[in-house]
Amino acid sequence: MMIAIKQVEEAFIKYVNKMVAYQEAISLMGWDLRTGAPKQGVEQRSNVIGILSAEAFQMSTSEEMAAYIAKLSTSEAKQSLSQVTLKLVEESKKEYDKNKKIPADEYKEYVILQSQAESVWEEAREKADFELFRPYIEKLVAFNKKFIGYWGYKENKYNTLLDMYEPGVTVKTLDDVFGKLRNQIVPLVKRISESANAPETEFLFKHFPKEKQRAFTLEILKQMGYNFEAGRLDETVHPFAVSLNPGDVRVTTRYDENDFRMAVFGTIHEGGHALYEQNISKKLMGTPLCDGTSMGIHESQSLFYENFVSRNKSFWKQNYDLLKEYAPDQFDQVSLDEFYRAINESKPSLIRIEADELTYPLHIMIRYEIEKGLFNDEIAVKDLPEIWNQKYEEYLGIKPENDSVGVLQDVHWAGGSFGYFPSYALGYMYAAQLKNTMIKDLPNYDKLLEEGNLLPIREWLTEHVHQYGKMKEPLNILKDITGEGLNVQYLIDYLYEKYTKIYQLT
Amino acid sequence: MMIAIKQVEEAFIKYVNKMVAYQEAISLMGWDLRTGAPKQGVEQRSNVIGILSAEAFQMSTSEEMAAYIAKLSTSEAKQSLSQVTLKLVEESKKEYDKNKKIPADEYKEYVILQSQAESVWEEAREKADFELFRPYIEKLVAFNKKFIGYWGYKENKYNTLLDMYEPGVTVKTLDDVFGKLRNQIVPLVKRISESANAPETEFLFKHFPKEKQRAFTLEILKQMGYNFEAGRLDETVHPFAVSLNPGDVRVTTRYDENDFRMAVFGTIHEGGHALYEQNISKKLMGTPLCDGTSMGIHESQSLFYENFVSRNKSFWKQNYDLLKEYAPDQFDQVSLDEFYRAINESKPSLIRIEADELTYPLHIMIRYEIEKGLFNDEIAVKDLPEIWNQKYEEYLGIKPENDSVGVLQDVHWAGGSFGYFPSYALGYMYAAQLKNTMIKDLPNYDKLLEEGNLLPIREWLTEHVHQYGKMKEPLNILKDITGEGLNVQYLIDYLYEKYTKIYQLT
Fold first, then answer.
1. Where is the domain boundary, A100, A116, A137?
2. Is residue B228 within 8 angstroms of chain A, CB to CB?
3. B324 lies in the same domain as B455
4. At what angle do helices B2-35 and B42-60 cross, to 10 degrees?
5. Which residue from A496, B18, B200, B203 puts its CA 20 to 30 A from B326's CA?
């Protein structure tokens, strides 16, 4: 009997290896499409990606998969399986249940709707015409409500969507942390807006040749511990990091020759994602567990490097001179302090992805409140533009002049991704909380940054976060490291301390 | 009943679409591995390629495939199927029979042997030690003999292998054409070796910066009609062209800064392959028929451009000035005539891939005679180095100093590819024969070259060759264009005329 289970386990592992192989092929095709695939091949390439994706999806809901899950879920089986296999079975079951509960024809209809909606959204955004997009987002919301019906929910319907991206995080948690954040940040943002001590920023926008930016960025990635034998840096319109396997984790960036911040901070951000994927335990290779455990934990890694490393003054004590070597004229008359204050300017803005550290969480909060309202039937799709604009005025004191820079700015909803946005803010809170524990282990944290010795930071993150891949749930990772649950106070303290100093608030 | 057949046909097309989708993913992964994939990801990537390849192979021999073939091969079905489907069924059956006749365990053993043999071959070549490689090639030959037993043969055992690469071409054909070629070329090579009119070539080997070579090469590809919206040019150690789909056909090249010929003629050669794939009818997209019809016809396209276009003096009447723009000093003191003669120098050499136009067929002939001997039990593997060296002395008047530049120089046998080499020479003969017909349609052929107006040539090749993909057998393509079968005389005439002129033989 034991032998039989071992055989089933082996066959099951081989089965998931195949699904992961499809995923690697799909990811590479996606990377290639964005980094330079010739445009006349795109249509057929999309068909190919569609065929392989359908195959992988079919495998996740097949009778064969159901049989593996059943055979490997008996109490007898559980006693003889490795921890990795147990977790694999658990994850596979979760995926199977999720996918299987939706009737096949509805799912197909939904997939077609998604791709139509994305293309209509592009047009609507261009024309700043929400009405064009409205029928599509209405259907997308309706589909997701129906899916919640199939999947079931606890306490709040929106919880089911949140759980897809951040297992264990609920409306209750988010109401609490966002409430605290709002109470503290909104007044701070207001004080800063009224402050007379805004930094000079003009010098940031001088011409900085792309090739020089790239060279500097490569130096910083190296400093972070990004392994170039297991990755590469390319150029794309929308930057991203993608893991093909832990030995091949690629980063892309975008260059603005009149604003070096885009490439530098963008690459550091994506580099943080990449460090996570490069350092997942090789024991998980070839399985779906060889992946970040959640969107929020993933974002905690990118934001850790972007905010807690590269927007820290210590980091620039050495790297500012390096930056000057690549951009010799631009910063000649600018002191380190002026530079540091400039890159940390905070100013209410309309576009999420251009927001600074302080105002960013407010952008997320607005989206969270709207999504929660949508799925609890408190907000109707037709009212989205108005509600969006009201909230921007309330939280940030500015109002979008049209929907293109308002409710139509993000692609997420067009792709049917509801429940995703909160991960961005959660990642930020996680990062602040991790930092608070990290400095107990690395009390010379700022000194390390000053010396450009970032390796101990990467090693700490690998030990406590990276290596586990999907073996640990996000909130367990947090608990094991910090001894507590999600606690937004660390982020609030960080922002208060930093911004009262930069803006010399009394 | 008709409806039933239509349904089977649709399902069958969908099935082959899937196989082709796997192939596109596999090809992209291969391209990526050679153009810059990070090395630590290679091992897992190879697993992924292995998994997808096994899947595609399995699909070609599955019961589902057998059922499609059976249902679509009835005389009733044949009446209602499109030409494309009929050909698809024919090709699928051929593939099915070929793969199915080999017992699965033997095939698996053979695949493992292939990959071991390639790695041992690399070592053996490095050490110039044939004995190291001998046990592997012995097994590879033995396997292929056994496979011939399974597959059966007509007249000559080696015919079965030839047919894999060049359907319809037999030992009888090759003995005939190679005999004629040998009788004419060997004496010509000898006369040239003894000629006092060898061209100066020193100026070819001056420093020519890689970026400049690349820029020039891009100009030439454009001139050829290579569509950059359906392709791209990258750098690799071993140049190749690869079709992902007709809208995405990529070329790679290699730069030697002290010998611009490698990149320029190499890219033109691969560009010829790429033009074929870019111009296959879109009606065949997504099916295995959307591919070159044979190795020989494929090579006819690359060699047409390499030899009949870019080693033609008319081609350089305009492009020599262009070349000078990119390499200003190198050719200042060199007349067009001197340049033309230098790039057409002929000299017996040991390495096939470095051979010139005139001696190249002799390299192929030697491999052909050896392969034919091996599979007819007239040559034993252990005698290969000796026989190899004898033949080089006989045909080319030079003798390899060791096996690394002798019998171990090519990878083909290590990969189990016996019967492949003749395609190179066939492609050359086809190209000469096509050219002979083409100039009847394009009597101003040389003028077109002089004007850099290569488009009518590409269009002619598309009309007569490219568009058909695998819809026509190689010898049918030849017959439909030229009205005759394979005729080596055109190549002999071409070489005679060209080389007696360049070497001023009387």
1. A100
2. yes
3. yes
4. 160
5. B200
Tally Cβ neighbours within 10 Å of residue A447: 12
Judge whether B247 is closer than 8 Å to chain A, CB to CB.
yes
Q: Which of B9, B166, B270, B357 is catalytic?
A: B270
Q: Is the dihedral of CA A123, A127, A132, A134 positive or negative?
A: positive
Residues 41-70 on A with a CB inside 8 Å of B are 41-45, 47-48, 51-52, 55
- Cβ atoms of A274 and A4 closer than 8 Å: no
SS3 B316: helix
User: Domain range holding A25?
Assistant: 2-100
Contact A28 B24 (CB under 8 A): no
Helix-helix angle B422-441:B295-303, to 10 degrees: 60
Alpha helices in B195-312 (DSSP H): 210-224, 261-278, 295-303
Tens of pLDDT along chain A (506 residues) come to 566 899 999 999 999 999 999 999 999 999 999 999 999 999 999 999 999 999 999 999 999 999 999 999 999 999 999 999 999 999 999 999 999 999 988 988 998 899 899 999 999 999 999 999 999 999 999 999 999 999 999 999 999 999 999 999 999 999 999 999 999 999 999 999 999 999 999 999 999 999 999 999 999 999 999 999 999 999 998 899 999 999 999 999 999 999 999 999 999 999 999 999 999 999 999 999 999 999 999 999 999 999 999 999 999 999 999 999 999 799 999 999 999 999 999 999 999 999 999 999 999 999 999 999 999 999 999 999 999 999 999 999 999 999 999 999 999 999 999 999 999 999 999 999 999 999 999 999 999 999 999 999 999 999 999 999 999 999 999 999 999 999 999 999 999 999 999 999 97
In this structure, are B454 and B308 located in the same domain? yes
In a domain, B89, yes or no: yes
Distance CA A361, CA B124 (A): 62
> Who among A25, A39, A246 is closest to B52 (CB)?
A25
| Interchain CB contact of A439 with B (< 8 Å) | no
- Does residue B109 belong to the interface with chain A, where contact is any CB pair within 8 Å? no
Among A145, A147, A123, A148, smallest CA distance to A133 is for: A123
Give the burial class of A325: count Cβ atoms within 10 A of its Cβ; 0-12 exposed, 13-18 middle, 19 or more buried: exposed
User: Do the bridges between strand B233-235 and strand B241-245 make them parallel or antiparallel, or are there none, so unpaired?
Assistant: unpaired
Burial of B118 from C-beta contacts in 10 A (0-12 / 13-18 / 19+): middle
CA–CA separation, B11 and A355 (whole Å): 51
Look at A32 and B32 and tell me if their CB atoms are within 8 Å.
yes
CA torsion A170-A176-A181-A183 (nearest 10°) is: 150
CB pair distance less than 8 Å for B248 and A17: no
Q: Decide: B358 and B375 in contact? Cβ < 8 Å.
A: no
Residue B10 falls inside a structural domain: yes
Q: Is A279 on the interface with B (CB under 8 A)?
A: no
Are A184 and A490 a contacting pair, CB within 8 Å?
Answer: no
Residue A244 in domain: yes
Domain final residue pick, A100, A128, A150 = A100
Q: What letter does residue A381 receive in the DSSP assignment?
A: G
> Domain of B312: which CATH number?
1.10.1370.30
Q: How far is B32 from chain A (nearest CA, A)?
A: 9
Domain count, chain A: 2
Known catalytic residue: A270?
yes
If one counts every other C-beta atom within 10 angstroms of the C-beta of residue B112, the result is 10
Beta carbons of A147 and A454 less than 8 angstroms apart: no
- Identify whether A82 is part of a domain: yes
- The Cα B195–Cα B188 span in angstroms is 10
